[in-house]
Amino acid sequence: MAVLHRLRNTCNDVTYVVAVTGAAGVDFQAELFEAGADDLLLEDGAHHLLRCLLRAKRHLALVEAHERARTALQDRLDTWQDGLDHLPTPIYLKDVGGRYLGCNTAFSQFVGAERDRVIGQTLADFLPEDVAEAHRQSDLDVMRRGGVIRVETDVCMPDTGMRHIMLHKACVASRDGGLRGLAGVVLDITERKQLEARLTAAAERDPLTNAYNRRKFFQVAAAATERASEADTCFAVAVIDVDLFKSINDELGHGEGDLTLCSIVDTLRNHESEGVLVARAGGEEFFAFFSGENALRAAEILECMRSDIARYCQVVTGVGAAGTISIGLADFDPREETIDHALRRADLALYRAKRDGRNRLCEAD
Predict the structure, then answer these.
(1) I need a labelling partner for 152 at 20 to 30 A (CA). Which of 70, 163, 169, 179 fits?
(2) Which tens digits make up the pLDDT trace of 243-262?
């Protein structure tokens, strides 16, 4: 028995072992098979030996066929794995318990671990528990509903830091129609999101001062007035103009004029809060929009703006103090007039402020 054990351990399953013995009881025959014998030759005679060899031949033919099939399957798997490893997009396969069954090189690099360390692990082994649990709930939702879902989220990876990713997840069915697991593709869209943010900023902000532009002003104002209920219809708009700005450009140069505008915008935006928005209308003119409780305090807020700008942004030129602001303010109810009409009334109030000596606030009639 010891010799048979050693032989089996040495040859594994690649050798067909026949135990040759005389008549043996059933228990002894069972011990031989348990020790590693594939067949028994219990009786003398050529015909008994022939049958034993034919069984061995058939067994070895089946083993060789299985080995060829296994080799062919492994070649196919290696080809698929090699192809997946050449793709820059992270791809993975999970079982229903959330453990990774396979992945490509891009995914192992994405989670910061070798593939051998990824296989058999869950996302909780690579990400904080709360983040991993959120993704696990998303996986369960896909498995409940079936089909494919797309999820965008931020994730902090060990080597790459915070990234914005898009996940495509799909159920993988077994041959019997059951659920085998999930296949997923991870698209790193961080650069795209950053570009979108830059394009959005470029579309809604003034490039010189970084203040919101006219387009953004009217978008915000329109959205706020459309959401207004009957109990919340108090809004205000203001037109703000920099006093004697041309003299700054003419006497000190356009560079100084640009610096003055930026300084004025910074001061105006210091007073921005929920319900207060300042935008550059063009040149040295600005619009301000007030909603909610701040609409009732619009004059007070604008006076603070005017006072701070007079204190910190004023420039002395040959024609007098420049760089202060004159303001026209108009309250309005969107049920009774449009924002364009309110701005025209505020503009008329601005002219009165200019006529009365500049650096002051006038409210529309």
Answers:
(1) 179
(2) 999 999 999 999 999 999 99
Q: What are phi and psi of 307, to 5 degrees?
A: -65, -45
Q: How many CB atoms sit inside 10 A of residue 332's CB?
A: 22
- Partnered with residue 39 across adjacent β-strands are 18
Does the model's pTM come out above 0.85?
A: no
For 281, the 3-state DSSP assignment is strand
Question: What is the pairing mode between strands 276-282 and 235-242?
Answer: unpaired
**Alpha-carbon Rg of the chain, whole angstroms?**
40
For the record, the structure tokens of 325 come out as 């602001």
pLDDT by 10-residue block (mean), the chain, 365 residues = 84 82 86 88 87 90 90 91 91 93 90 88 85 86 86 75 86 86 91 86 89 94 84 87 95 94 95 93 96 94 96 91 95 92 96 95 94
Token duo for residue 355: 């006529």
159 DSSP 8-state letter:
T
Residue 62 to residue 8: CA distance in whole angstroms: 19
Q: DSSP secondary structure string, 322-364?
A: ES-EEEEEEEE-TTTS-HHHHHHHHHHHHHHHHHTTSSSEEE-
Query: Do 204 and 212 contact (CB within 8 A), yes or no?
Result: yes
Percentage of residues in the chain with pLDDT exceeding 90? 53
41: its two tokens: 């030759």
Q: Catalogue the long-range contacts made by 332-341 (C-beta closer than 8 Å, 24 or more residues apart).
A: 332/235, 332/236, 332/237, 333/233, 333/234, 333/235, 334/225, 334/228, 334/233, 334/235, 335/233, 339/218, 339/221, 339/222, 339/225, 339/235, 339/237
The SS3 of residue 175 is: coil
| Distance of alpha carbon 309 from alpha carbon 326, whole angstroms | 11
pLDDT tens by residue, 46-103: 888 899 899 989 988 888 899 899 999 999 988 989 999 999 999 999 999 999 999 9
C-alpha separations of 73 from 66, 70, 88, 164 in Å: 10, 5, 25, 37
| First vs last C-alpha separation in the chain | 112
